[in-house]
Fold Secreted protein.
Amino acid sequence: MRLKGQVRTWLAAAATAAALFVSPTPTASANANPNAQAPQAGRYLNLHQCVYMPASGVDYFTTVVPSRDGRFTTGTNTSDTANTSSSCGAGDGNFEPSHPWAGVQSLDLSAGRYLNLHQCVYYSDAQHDHITTVANVGAPEFAAHSNVSDTPDTTPNCGPGQGQYHLVPLLSDVKVLDLTAGRYVNLQQCVYYYGQSPFNDHFTTVVPTTRDGRFTTGTKVSNTADTTPTCGTGDGNFTLIPLLSGTKALSRT
């Protein structure tokens, strides 16, 4: 009996000693960090704005992501490097890059929670022509003040236009993209065209225009990578051109 008691005493002591060296397994709640963010695929969203015009006449249109027609591609990307020069397709022989409005804006994704994507659309009554900008490049009169911030923008911040081109508030807007809402920034562009005399006019939308839903787009943040653009049907005069429209899913993680 005395031996059994000694064995029990020794086993209890051993168990106590072993417990001192065993770290408790942390619970999921102990490991969770509500403020933790997934690692980014790149610090910068390099927003390439490519504007094309015909060899003769006036008819500008803009691409921000590669169109389904690869001749009007752009270099928009996420990267740890801030791009310093724009990358645009060569056009199709009829339309060529117009450099005064072409450029790249590097948006620091670590600067805040929201990507405020501004779209500014200008129109010339004399030329019957639209110009769309989404980046703060080139002449300040046509700047779209897209930014990354902890504050969601509520109204578009656009240059006033210049010369014959004036801002069109109905088609201009800002889309607030919550960068914590998903893995992908799905940028979409929808290009519309009106070709009845005296009009010969393309124009582009990149953000959903809440003031005129006929020219909406599907630009958003999501855990799903979009493969096709979601575009409005136009207004009966301007019709969608699928060949020039496109989408690009920019992975953040």
The mean pLDDT is 86. The CA atoms of residues 68 and 243 lie 5 Å apart. The chain is about 10% helix and 35% strand.
